[in-house]
Amino acid sequence: MANVLEARGITKAFGGLLAVNAVDFDIPERAIVSLIGPNGAGKTTFFNMVSGLYTPTRGRFVLTGRDITKMKPHQRAQMGLGRTFQNIRLFGTMSAVDNVLAGMHVRLKGSILGAVLKMPGVRREEKEAREKAHALLDFVGLRGRETFAKNLPYGDQRRLEIARALASDPKLLLLDEPTAGMNPQETARLTELIGRLRQERGLSVLLIEHEMRVVMSISDRVTVLDHGEKISEGTPTEVRQDERVIEAYLGTARTG
């Protein structure tokens, strides 16, 4: 199976601090891959390099066969990379449907002049975009289309972020702690949604998640970072039994 993303020798230094050190990493097509590790392991730094917020000190990223290492975030979005954030970043005083429409901007072709003059091609594109936004909100299970994002329940805000990310038609979706702050029922519903992203939309997913029940239940492969270095990689079962992972999380190796 081909890889949608390949990372080779990814290193990031902030002054004298080596946050990520020579990490190799692959995400196959239609795979759910989780990146885990203790606090300060370098997960978010790696995530931010994939999405283009940081540039690696060394190493390179290849997305669907093209080197994206020096591309800006909007260029990566055009290439098929979408993401959500650990801290929700919605447009609070815009409706749910308008938040999703905002996520489509990298795919829309109409000009400002065309919009002002209400040209037929622009009107048609706007109609199709709104229909697509409604379909995405239905897909994630969110019904409050015209509700301001800030007035939605917390779990629905998380779902709205995913719908907005899907609006750019990504091939790879990065989810940064999507179940953070959720109760068990909300977590179960979102876990089911993540599985549907792969099954029904054919996406690859890179997941940072502290809830290990989510990671172990849904991941095809798990990669573990500790102090910026990859210490383990494999199936959830393999990683769960790895002594290096146990030591990193618990501070001591298992005995007996």
From TrEMBL:
GO terms for cellular component: plasma membrane. Pfam families: ABC_tran, BCA_ABC_TP_C. The keyword Magnesium does not apply. Residues 5-252 form the ABC transporter domain. The keyword Transport applies. GO terms for biological process: D-alanine transmembrane transport; L-alanine transport; L-isoleucine import across plasma membrane; L-valine import across plasma membrane. InterPro entries: AAA+_ATPase (IPR003593), ABC_AA/LPS_Transport (IPR051120), ABC_transporter-like_ATP-bd (IPR003439), BCA_ABC_TP_C (IPR032823), P-loop_NTPase (IPR027417). GO terms for molecular function: ATP binding; ATP hydrolysis activity; L-isoleucine transmembrane transporter activity; L-phenylalanine transmembrane transporter activity; L-valine transmembrane transporter activity. Transmembrane segments: none annotated. Keywords: ATP-binding, Nucleotide-binding, Transport. This is ATP-binding cassette domain-containing protein. It comes from Rubrobacter marinus.
